[in-house]
Amino acid sequence: MTASRLARFFAPRSIALVGAADTSGWAQNIMLSSQTVGFSGPLIPVHPRHKEVFGQPAIPSLRQLDGPVDLAFVLAPQHAVADVLDDAAAAGVRNAVILASGYREVGDAGRDLQDRLIAHAVKHDITLLGPNCLGYVNAHARCAPFGFIVPPPLTAGPVGIVLQSGALATDVLAFARAHAIGVSVLASMGNEAMITTTDVIEYLIDDPATKVISLFLEEISSPGEFSRAAGRAAAAGKPIVALKAGASPAGQAAALAHTGSVTGDDAVVGAELRRLGVIRVTSLEELLATAALLGHARHPRGRRMGVLTTSGGACDIIADRSAAAGIEVPEFAPQTIAAIQPLLPPFASARNPLDVTGYTLAHRRTSALTPIDHALDAAASDPGLDFILFGGIRLPDARPANEGLAGLIEERLDWLAGRIASAPVPVIPVNATCVDISRYAREQLTCRGINVLPSIGLGICALQNALWWVENAGRAAAGRSQPAPAQPLLPAPASAPDGPWSELAARQFLAAAGVPLVPAELATSAEEAAGAAVRLGLPVALKVCSAQITHKSDLGGVELGLGSPAEVREAYRRVRAAGDAIPGAQVDGVLVTAMRGGGLELLAGVTMDPTFGPVLTVGLGGLWVEILRDISLRVLPVDPAEVKRMLNELRGAALLHGSRGRPRADLDRLAAVVCALGDAAVSLGSSLRALEVNPLWVSGGRVEALDALVVTGS
Amino acid sequence: MTASRLARFFAPRSIALVGAADTSGWAQNIMLSSQTVGFSGPLIPVHPRHKEVFGQPAIPSLRQLDGPVDLAFVLAPQHAVADVLDDAAAAGVRNAVILASGYREVGDAGRDLQDRLIAHAVKHDITLLGPNCLGYVNAHARCAPFGFIVPPPLTAGPVGIVLQSGALATDVLAFARAHAIGVSVLASMGNEAMITTTDVIEYLIDDPATKVISLFLEEISSPGEFSRAAGRAAAAGKPIVALKAGASPAGQAAALAHTGSVTGDDAVVGAELRRLGVIRVTSLEELLATAALLGHARHPRGRRMGVLTTSGGACDIIADRSAAAGIEVPEFAPQTIAAIQPLLPPFASARNPLDVTGYTLAHRRTSALTPIDHALDAAASDPGLDFILFGGIRLPDARPANEGLAGLIEERLDWLAGRIASAPVPVIPVNATCVDISRYAREQLTCRGINVLPSIGLGICALQNALWWVENAGRAAAGRSQPAPAQPLLPAPASAPDGPWSELAARQFLAAAGVPLVPAELATSAEEAAGAAVRLGLPVALKVCSAQITHKSDLGGVELGLGSPAEVREAYRRVRAAGDAIPGAQVDGVLVTAMRGGGLELLAGVTMDPTFGPVLTVGLGGLWVEILRDISLRVLPVDPAEVKRMLNELRGAALLHGSRGRPRADLDRLAAVVCALGDAAVSLGSSLRALEVNPLWVSGGRVEALDALVVTGS
Description:
Two copies of one chain form a homodimer.
Chain A: H1 3-9, E1 15-18, H2 25-37, E2 43-46, E3 52-53, E4 56-57, E5 71-74, H3 81-91, E6 95-98, H4 108-123, E7 127-129, E8 135-138, E9 156-163, H5 169-178, E10 183-188, H6 197-206, E11 212-217, H7 223-235, E12 240-244, H8 258-262, H9 265-275, E13 279-280, H10 284-296, E14 305-309, H11 312-325, H12 334-340, E15 354-355, H13 371-380, E16 387-390, H14 403-422, E17 427-429, H15 439-446, H16 456-481, E18 499-500, H17 503-512, E19 520-523, H18 526-536, E20 540-546, E21 558-562, H19 565-580, E22 587-594, E23 600-609, E24 613-620, H20 623-626, E25 631-635, H21 640-649, H22 653-656, H23 667-683, E26 688-699, E27 702-705, E28 709-712
Parallel strand pairs in A: 1-2, 1-5, 5-6, 6-7, 9-10, 9-11, 11-12, 12-13, 14-15, 14-16, 16-17
Antiparallel strand pairs in A: 3-4, 8-10, 18-28, 19-22, 20-21, 20-22, 23-24, 23-26, 24-25, 26-27, 26-28
Helix pairs in contact in A: 6-7, 7-16, 10-16, 11-16, 12-13, 18-19, 21-23
C-alpha cells in the first residue's frame, strides 16, 4: 500500500454511491456528511432499479459512468459486491469503500468470502477500505464518503482519527465539535481486509495536515508493522494517542509458570505501547483532549506550570489534580508577583495558582484587556515556568447585542491569539467544566487558531499525557532504528520436551546462557546430599528434582534452612519420598543448593503472548508479585538499559536503591543478568512456553538464580 | 439556625438589591439570574445616589420600603454594611446576603470586623449568608439573589449544591445545564460567619425538593456538626457527594512518630468521609454526574449490569471501565438471549454488553420503537441483572422538520419514560461522549423526567459511587446513633512529660489499657540482661530505654536475635554505650525483650489531626507502610467492627487472611487490641501527640506489641 496510492484514496474529487436508495440511512448520511464537510465534487447515485435517488438522477451501474470517478462507496449487499467490483474495474474506478458485513467477523465462511473479495480487488487493482466499514471523512480535502452522521460543523485541523469501531465515529466527532477540535481524517477501519490500521497511520504520518494521530483499537493484529509505524511517527514528531480496549483471554501457557498468572495480555499491550512512545488513554474524551492539546498547542518543555484562573475553587482543583499527575505548580518569581499584585483586589494575593477573583469581572467592561490578561503577560515571562494554564477565556453564549461590548471581546481575543503565538512559553487555555463551547465561541476561537482544553480534569490529564510524550518520544524514535539483538549462541538443550524441564536441565541451560545460578549439586542418596551440603556450605536447601513436579513446595518437595548433615539426611528422605509419591513423576534426585539471605529476591520470567510473542516480566519476589501485582513487562528483545527502566518502574523500586540501610543493588549487573535470561528465552524460538527464575536473588553486586523453570512445547 | 428560619431564608418572595447600580456586574447578574429562574416577586434597587437602576426606580435606603422585603442582597462596600443592617432592621428585613469582602479571609483585622458584623446581625435578629459570598439560587422557589451568571435555562430538580468557592457556580451550573441536571438550591457559602455549610446541609435534608446533596468543600471547620449532618442525611436516605479540595500542611506532631509521616490530613478527610457514608469525588463533573444519577434515577440494588448500546466500541469501553470499577457485566439469561437474537442482524450476537449494531439504525424509520428498545424490554426482565445501562437514546440536534419522524421520536420517548418508571430494575440512560444535550433533547427529556448520564466514563464513575453509597449508607446511618465509647479508666501515667515517654513507661501505660505486650525486662547491667534473657527465652532483642532516644535503631541502640547469654552481655555493653553517647539522654537501662518470628507485623498508631483530633492508622509493617503507604485511617473513637473494616481495606489484607499457607490472623483478637490501643490514646485527651505500636505482631490468635511509643505535650 504505497503512500501515494493512499493519498489518492483519501482525497477523491468524485464519488459514486453504489446501491444508494432513498430508504437507505447509510446513503442519506453520506449525502449529509458530504454537505457538512463541503464536498464540491459529483456524488453520483448508482442503483440497478431506482431512476432517481435523493432527487438526483441515478445510473444503473458504474459501467454507465461518463468517466471514472475517484472512489466508489459500495452500499450494495454482500452477494452483489463482487459484481460491483467488476463494474468498477470496467469503469476505471480504482478506489472503493465496502460497507457490507458478513465477512471475517462472522467466522470461517465469512473469512473465505473476504479472501475471495480481496483477491478480486487485487486482480482489478482496486484499493479497498473495509468490508464492514463506514468509510472515512477528510476535513481538509472536504470529502466524506462516510455512512454515519458527521455532526455539523466539522472543524478542519491537526487531529487524525482511526477507529476500529466505526460506530463510535458520531460520538467522537460530536466531542470534537463540542470543543472545536480540528480533525484532519477520520477513518472507520472495518475488517481491514486490505487497508489496515497501520496503513492509515503511515498515511497520516505523511499527511502534512495531520500533526497527531489518535486511535481506537480493538486489536493490534500486526505488532511488527505497528511498531515500525510508531517508530516512524515518533521520528516525525507526530504523537500517537491510543484508546486500546478489551483484554483478550490469558494465553494458555500461563498456568504453569507463576509469571503467567500475573501477566494479562492487556498489560503486555500497555507495556508495548509505552515502549513505543504511544500515549495510552482510557476514554474517548481523553483521547481527543490529548490529541487536541498536542495538535493545537505548542508543546511544553517541562513540568513547571503557571496557573491563572478567576476562581479559588478552580485553583484548588487544579492544584490537587496536578499533584496527582506529577505536574509542578511552583511559586512565582518575585518580579511576577510584583507585576501581578497591583492587578488584584486588596484581599487577594499573587501566588501560583493564581485566582484573580470574581471581583475582576464584576465591573462593566470598558477596555479589552482584563486583569487576568495582564497577569498572563507577567506569568508567561516568569523564568521558573515551562507553560501557562490559562483559565481566563469565558465567552458569552452568543455575540452580545451591544456592539461595543462585542468589539471589546473580539479585540481581546485578537490580543490573546497574538500572545499565545508569541509568549516565551506555551499558553494553554482551559475551560473549567466540560461543556460545549458555543457557536459564537467556536467561530471566534477557531478563526484565531485558539483551542481551549475541554475541562480541568481532561486538561490536566492531557497535559500529563503530553508531558510524558515529550519526555519519551525521543527514546521511542531512537529505539526504532535499533536492530533486534543477535540471538545468543546457546548449546542446544539436552532435551526439549513437551512440557516442563527438570530443574537441573533448566539450570544447565540458563548457566550456558550466562545467567549465574546459586551453587547446587544433585544428590541421589541421603549421604550424597549430606556431602554436597558440606561442600556447598551449611545451611542448604533441598528440592526434589523432576520434570513432572512443578509446584514442589506445595507437595513437601522443598525444605529450607537445613543446618547440619543430620538434618540434611533426614530432609533428603522426606523430600525424596514426597517426590516418589507423585504418580507418574520421574524423580532425578534431590537438588542440594546453597542458601542466600540478606539481599532481595526478584522474579524474572518470560511467557509467550499470542500477539506479541515472548514477553519479559520482572518484579520483586514474594508478596510484591503475589499480592500487589507489582510487575513490569516488555516484549522481547530488550537491552540492559530497558531492563533498568523496567526495574525502576516497580512500586518497590526503592528497595533496590537501598532503603532503610539495605545495600543498594547493582542495577547494571542485575539488568545484564535479566537480559541474558531474556535472550535465553528468545533463543528457544517458538518452542518456548515459559521460562522463569523465581527467586532471582540480588545482594549488592551479587546476582544468582535460586530456582529455574523452563517449559517448552510444540 | 432553625430549619424554619432557613426555609424562609431560602425562599424570599421579595428582594431588595442594596447598592445596586447600572455599572455593577453583580447587580446585573442578579437581575439576569432572577429572570432565568423566573422570579416573579419585586426586585427593588436601593441606592443612596441613583434614582433609577436598570431602568427601574430606586429608593435611597431600605428605610424607604413600603413594607419589609423578605431578603436584602447587600452589594454595598464593606464600610457601609453595618449601616445597611441598621436600615434593614428598621425596615423589618430579617434576611441578608452580604457580598462584601475584606473580612475573615484577610486575616486578624478582617476577623474582628466579621465578629462585629455578626454581633450586629444577631442584635437585629437578621439571618445572614456571607460575607464574601455570591448568594444563592433556589430553582423551585424561583428566586436567584445571586451575583454570578446562571446560564439559562436552569432545570429545577433534585440536586442541592453547596459551594465553598462561589466563583465555581457558573461553571457548575453550565455543566448542569449541559446535561439537564435538575437543581434545587445552589448556595455560595462565603465566610460562613453565620449560616454554615452544615446549616445548609441540614436545610437541604429537610427540603422536600432536594434528594441528593453535593458539596464543594475547601475545609470542614466543624467536624462534629458535619458528622451529625452526614448521619442525618444518611438516615433520611439523601446521599451526600463531596469534592473536597486542598490538603493542608501536615500536623506538627507528625515528625516524631512514623505514623505521622504517612498520614496526610487529606487522607484523614478521606477516611472520615468514607466512614460517614459521604461519596468523595475528584472533579466537578463527577460531582454532578453522581448527584444526577442518585437524584434522578431509581437506585440500583446490586452490581450486575446489563448494557445495551449501538456500538461495539462503546461495549468495549464500558466493559473495561466496569471491570475497573467493580461492576459486573454477567451473561444474559437464556430467555433474554432468545428474545434479543431475532432483533439483531445475522452477524451480531445477543450477549451482554449488547451491541445492536449501527445496522439497526440504518433504515428509514417507520415505527416508534427500534430494536434496542425491544432489547431493553427483554434485558430489564432478566432475573440475573440489577440494572440496565441504556445507550439507545440518540436525539437529533433539533426537532426534525418531518412531522412524521418527529412524532415517531417523541412517541418513542413516551414509551421509554414509561419503561424507565415501570421496568423491574432501574434503567439508566447514558450518553457516549460528554457533549451537551441539545435544546430539543433537553425539552423532550426533561418534560418526561428522563435524565441521561453525561458520558460512559462519568456514567460508570457515577454508578460506582452510587453503588458504594447503596452498600454503605445504611451503616453510616446506623453509626450515627452510636454513642462514643466511654473512655477507659486507665491509671494516670506515672509521668506525662512534654515529649516522648521512655519505652518502659509506654509499655506500662498500654498494658494497663489492655494492650498485650511482648514479655520484657529492664536491665541495668550486662549480667541482669543475660539473666533476663534466659528467663524470657533466647533469642532476645535488646533496646536502649530512654525517653530522649526515639530513633533507637539508627543509633545502634537496638540489637536483635541474640542467641546466648554471652551474646546478650556483649550486646548490652554496645547498646548501653550507644545510648550513653547521646548528649542529654537519660538512659533508664536496656530493655530485654523476647523475639517473635513467623506471623505478621503491623503498625498501629494514633496521631492528632488539627481538625479531627485523634486519628488511628493501621498498616502492615515494614515495607508495606514505608514504600507502599498501604494504610487505613479512622478518626477515633472506633469499635472493633470498624477496625476489622480498616484491616480489610489494606492492599495487603490477603496476608492477614492466610495467603500461601501462612496462618490466618485472628482478626477479632487483633481488632480488639487495636481498639484498646485507640481507647488508650483517646484517654490521654488533648495532651496526646502520638501513640504508636510498631511492630504489632500477630500470629493466629496471638497478638503482641513488640515496641511502644507515646508522645504527649501541652
